[in-house]
């Protein structure tokens, strides 16, 4: 069975150029915020919520503009730099359903200013579950509503003050369509028999705990795979941590302080002095003397670390080994994983949704490496639930994975 997806309108999309009630003023002081809180508390129905960050420009992922729209309340554009505590607004919207696009991107920065939903509808995730091939807000708005959103300001520096009017217009239009998009996607999901799946996913998003700090974040340095020796890994770590400190102090994106490629190049070369470091690709004469001294000091710290204290070659983890090692370590487990992956892929294709939304690949690996006994559908389902799978996911995939395990055991 292949689920239907709403057809893309045959006519050209209608461009959205101006907010319906005009461009509202930016809320940037306590008096304006109090009036906004009262207006949105008096509104009805779902509230569209969006946030703009300065990724690539500033350190961290804080919000630099927050947009809201609700029936009876209109649209609000809030400056969280001028109004850093929005907990009163969060409380006013506590009983409302929040409509967001790509909740995992916006919810952390909204939580930083005191706004946390109790119920939400994620239009990006809804699009994935419904089987849309392109789930960005622009493509979704075009294919579902026949409306065109200009997206040329999506990657600008939202920490700019004052914010230019064209940027504010762009931001206001983003929440103009969200509730209408939500309603259309709800109908689409209901027609496909997937609405209950989506609601369970949305509830999990709204109630998810804050993620724990990442262990060894420096290991996410791009091109790290080029670094093989533990001493060089220590150099990557020291350079990364130095860059992170400088970026935090200056409130700039770490990549603007020093590119990842430069960190890896320096770790591979391990230059001993300033001229040698300047010769490393990614550094050069534009790096000021003080920063050169800091990078050289980081490299020297890496040289002085005792052998026993060097970072391990691979990141510590509590799960199964990398799948590429399974065939040597446990061929039966490798056969289980191969069968389970194929079963999940077939199910995902049948239900017209991405395999990673049907079940998280990590859960498939974990249950394949240490299957329950007996490995029947009920036990596999219980194991998946313990690992965090949702009920709808378990109902679909547990029988298929159990069958794959049985087939692997009989080989």
TrEMBL record:
GO terms for biological process: nucleobase-containing compound metabolic process. Pfam families: DNA_pol_A_exo1, DNA_pol_A_exoN, HRDC. InterPro entries: 3'-5'_exonuclease_dom, Exo_C, HRDC-like_sf, HRDC_dom, HRDC_dom_sf, RNase_D-like, RNaseH-like_sf, RNaseH_sf. Residues 229-309 form the HRDC domain. PROSITE patterns: HRDC. It comes from the Bacteria. Residues 308-328 are annotated as: Disordered. One of its GO terms (molecular function) is nucleotide binding. This is Ribonuclease D. It comes from Kitasatospora camelliae.
């Amino acid at each position: 069975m292949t689920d239907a997806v709403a057809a893309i309108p045959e006519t050209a999309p209608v461009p959205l150029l101006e907010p319906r009630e005009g461009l509202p003023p930016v809320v940037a002081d306590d008096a304006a915020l109090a009036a906004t809180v009262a207006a949105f508390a008096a509104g009805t129905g779902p509230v569209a919520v969006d946030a703009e960050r300065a990724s690539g420009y500033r350190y961290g992922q804080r919000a630099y503009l927050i947009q809201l729209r609700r029936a009876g309340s209109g649209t609000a554009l809030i400056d969280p730099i001028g109004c850093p505590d929005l907990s009163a607004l969060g409380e006013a919207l506590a009983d409302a359903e929040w409509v967001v696009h790509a909740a995992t991107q916006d919810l952390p920065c909204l939580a930083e200013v005191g706004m946390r939903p109790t119920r939400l509808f994620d239009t990006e995730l809804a699009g994935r579950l419904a089987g849309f091939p392109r789930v960005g807000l622009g493509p979704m708005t075009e294919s579902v509503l026949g409306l065109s959103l200009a997206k040329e300001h999506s990657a600008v520096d939202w920490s700019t003050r004052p914010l230019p009017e064209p940027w504010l217009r762009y931001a206001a239009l983003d929440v103009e369509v969200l509730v209408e998009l939500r309603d259309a996607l709800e109908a689409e999901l209901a027609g496909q028999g997937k609405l209950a799946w989506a609601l369970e996913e949305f509830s999990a998003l709204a109630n998810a705990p804050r993620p724990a700090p990442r262990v060894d974040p420096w290991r996410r340095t791009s091109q790290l795979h080029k670094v093989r020796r533990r001493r060089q890994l220590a150099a990557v770590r020291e350079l990364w941590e130095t860059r992170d400190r400088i970026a935090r102090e200056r409130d700039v994106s770490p990549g603007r302080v020093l590119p990842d490629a430069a960190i890896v190049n320096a770790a591979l070369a391990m230059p001993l002095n300033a001229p040698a470091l300047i010769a490393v690709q990614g550094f050069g004469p534009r790096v000021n003397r003080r920063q050169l001294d800091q990078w050289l000091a980081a490299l020297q710290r890496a040289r002085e670390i005792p052998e026993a204290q060097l970072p391990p070659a691979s990141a510590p983890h509590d799960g199964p080994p990398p799948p590429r090692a399974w065939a040597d370590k446990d061929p039966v487990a490798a056969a289980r994983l191969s069968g389970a992956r194929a079963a999940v892929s077939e199910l995902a294709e049948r239900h017209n949704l991405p395999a990673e939304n049907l079940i998280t690949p990590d859960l498939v690996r974990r249950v394949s490496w240490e299957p329950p006994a007996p490995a029947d559908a009920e036990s596999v389902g219980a194991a998946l639930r313990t690992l965090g799978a949702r009920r709808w996911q378990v109902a679909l995939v547990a029988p298929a994975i159990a069958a794959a395990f049985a087939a692997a055991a009989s080989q």
